[in-house]
Design goal:
Chain lengths: 517, 193
Amino acid sequence: MRLACAYAPQLALQAVLRRSPEWLQHKQQAIVLAAGPGERARIVGLTGAAAQAGLHKGLTVHQARALGSARLDDRLEVLVRSEADTQAAQAALNDVGFSFAPRVDAEPGRVFFEVGDLMQLYPEGEAAIARAITSRAARLGLSVRVAVAGSKGIARIATRATGEHVLVPSTPTGAAAFLAALPLQAGLQALTKSGDEDTALPADVRAIAELGEQLQRWGVRRLGDLAALPLQDVALRLGEQGAHLRRLVAGRDDEPFAPVLPPDAVLEGTELDYALESIEPLAFVLRGLVDRVLTRLSCRNLACNGLTLRLKLEPRGYDVRDLEMGAPTREAQTLLQLLRLDIARRPPTSPVIGAEILARPARVRAVQLDFLRPAGPPPERMAATLARLTALVGPENVGAPQVADSFKEEECHMVPWRWSSAPAEQNTLTPQLGIRRYRPPQPVEILMGRDGPSAMHGTGFSARILVAAGPYRTSSEWWKDEGWSRDYWDVHASDGALYRLHQDRENGDWFVDGYYD
Amino acid sequence: MAVVDEVIGGGWPRGGLSEVAGPRSSGRMTLLLMSLGNALAAGEAAALVDVGGGLDPRWAQTLGVPLVRLLWVRCDAVQALPAADMVLGAGGFGLLAIDFGDQQAKAPMGAWQRLKRTAAEQRTALVVGAPYRPQGALGRVALRLQPGRPGFAGGGATPALLVDLHTQAVVERNSGETTNAKRDVALHWPRAV
């Protein structure tokens, strides 16, 4: 078994940076991540440029600003940690794994997945796989270090080694030989299952620090030094954690691979520093979320089949709206247009201070072509077209017509349209007269004569009635409150048209249902 | 439909625009639905861009149109041409019908040219139905339907009953040429039971 471990250092900081791609382009920018708002918040993450200026974790924002103003040429950028961004970044990291393997094992800041069966796709070897993982993560806005090893614990330590891609042999002796050269600190850091030291439990951090001090006192500087000590004696003096580290550095790891299933939906969210009141700046924020959602879906070869948008309102409350797609799509412009239309139709009642998009994934299926029948629309392009049509005219106006199970003539449904290259139906069509309907039926005033309606007047309908056939009485649902009873008439009017009218017997109002056409 | 096919020389031209103009109760919707039904029965993909959403699915089902395979887009007159352009752009459709209902088909000449070019590229038969022939569309085939003459049974002491509708189609343009000798086609639509 060959496991890859993708490790995203300082995931909380990366999560906030990936929200704004312009920060990712300025790698020399000194940026620090604060645990919360305000000048007293502690620094929990920082970029390389900030570290070079002498800043470090644990300082307050005020201290970091003071140091930064003295030592930095540019202004120090202070960002605030966002739980929504961190969760989205972790989910994106998991998606990196799901884009290579059906099952992954995840922990904060790391994802493990099986790569032993990818050799046919990457005949150049494991280095090519590691490069592909790094590149896939970069597409999702994450910078990762990748290690490929025979087990989880060893892969976890190997990600702390220098170099972007680390390949550890599978055999215990090979793994031990590789780990021997690594500093003790690499092994200690990998003992916590949290990728970020600041997110690890304080008790764990304290226990690992004590273990490190003990080993330092023994003169252990590298993992190879620890591997040379007898296991029984280490276990006797350092307890379970020490024995576990000793077994690991000897290349023996029995930590099981505990796979998780891919999520049913893809969630991306962000919290805003200030409230937004108009649609344009909100659309800008949503564009970023939609782009990230679609990139994550496309990594797993999926498309978006529907969206739930949750806007966090000021001072409290949420505005939640569901958007159904005509067909799965990967076009950001289409999704954004749908969101804009929906927000314009029903604007939020208060300023927006946060947004989350939950995308429902769907697979775009390929269709088997036929030699003898027309190919029909290509599924991928048709999916995008249906989504664009939905954005243009609304989801209730695109699809396939369906006859409603009702006695009301004008009722019908719209169901999702799916092209199928079913065998051609050889039934012959019989031309029959039918009604072009007004939806809803148009109100009209009727002048009654001795034999029925004799003239009609309404918006677009003013004519004498030459022939009136009827009435045909129908009623239904009288057992409910919404029961109805109508008298229908077919009338030939002086404007040349052949109308279908009905009179509501409850209140005597007249309506034009449509005309025969 | 066979009569119309014969007059225009083998059905709506594939990759070209055809116009069907006719006032209310001229049988325009029946003609378009029959065309869509025949295309679907031949295994083609077909779509109806329906301004005002006047299609009656019960009636279409009675005609024999396989509803589940018909793409129906309900829209207003402004959205009709962009919607048609999207459907054509997807490719693979055998027939696309745009029906403007009671609305006049108003669009700049450039929009019609773009639509015709896309239809030609995708080899789709494009049929536009409206009360009057659209300005600037200049289709390869133009058919004008005359107001229908309804037939009633009964009357007098017995209640009248609508039985059928007779209408006439005049081919005003065929194969891209204005026809000097206009040919009348008698169409007979019995009423659906």
